[in-house]
Amino acid sequence: MPYSFNADLPAPVRNHLPEHAQDIYRNAFNHAYAAHAGESRQEEIAHRIAWAAVKRSYVKQAGTWVPWDHVPRGMED
């Protein structure tokens, strides 16, 4: 099911990602959900693609998701 608002996202997404990362997740999920319409694993695929989209712009550091451009060099892990 596509998400209209960030408030509609699953609790683990809402409770752990910053607002901008939630926007990325929601947009990627909705696009992937539509692109994989009719497939038996449509929702699973859309969630995986959405997380991958978030991970292109954000990284989890000390339990908090931060934008890649806020990570000091050498501290990516």
From TrEMBL:
InterPro entries linked to this entry: ChaB, ChaB_sf
Domain of life according to the entry: Bacteria
Annotated protein name in UniProt: Cation transport regulator
